[in-house]
Amino acid sequence: MRFDEAYSGNVFIGASTDLEKASTVIYGMPMDWTVSFRPGSRFGPKRVREVSLVLEEYSPYLRRELTDGTYYDAGDIPLAFGNPEKSIAQIGEFVARVLEQKKIPLGIGGEHLVTWPVVREVYKQYPDLAIIHLDAHADLRTDYEGEEYSHATPLRKIAELIGEENVYQFGIRSGTKEEFEYAEQGGIHFHPFEVLSPLQKALPQLAGRRVYVTVDIDVLDPAYAPGTGTQEPGGISSRELIASIHAIAGSDVQVVGADLVEVAPAYDQSDQTAIVAAKVIREMLIGFFR
Questions:
Q1: Which of 28, 173, 234, 251 would disulfide-bridge 203, Cβ 3.0–4.6 Å?
Q2: Residue 271 counted as an annotated binding residue
């Protein structure tokens, strides 16, 4: 699949039309085949792009513009509707081509299962990979009601692939007893409930390392992000999430890929969830991949 075959018609603000010069490729993963409560995150990538037009291309936090770097928006990957296993394979194939061209992948979900095939491909390139995971949910189940391909399982799959000691989780406030015990006893760097303070303390441990960053929008309290499939009260503010992205951007880690997932526009007619997601992606593009 060529990048132009994935194109869906609308692009994130500031996107370049020159793939060859771009250092980063942004792409959508419109999949919600395994959600356990409310579907709709497959419409997230398109809406996040659309509302990105409300933003400025300049970040007053980082004092840089999107045009200070170059990224290409490849649109949404055309996935096999309702087929998780085939969709996972299609995402992996697409990301492998991004990496073959020496580009950095930045994905928009879609449910959180989409992170699994991306990290699997990035790990092939960088076997010293660590992951920073910001989320309300642990996503550490081995299966969900007998189904191993579930939005509740991607971090368990990733931990078993790259090693539990290379997984850093923040903001977790929901999961089974077994998930919390696995996280706390299995070697994961597990920081429930809070994000910014423990993240700032953990980043020096990752200095010089290659890192993949995955953000589930439900790490935010529903007051800030109601447009998601599985809301979980007690989360952080949008201001703290943006500050957390800046903390990573200002550290000595090398971000080699990232994603933001679980925006479900139908549950937020105001678009505040999609807008905060677009702003976080803007800060990622400017801060991580300059």
A1: 251
A2: no
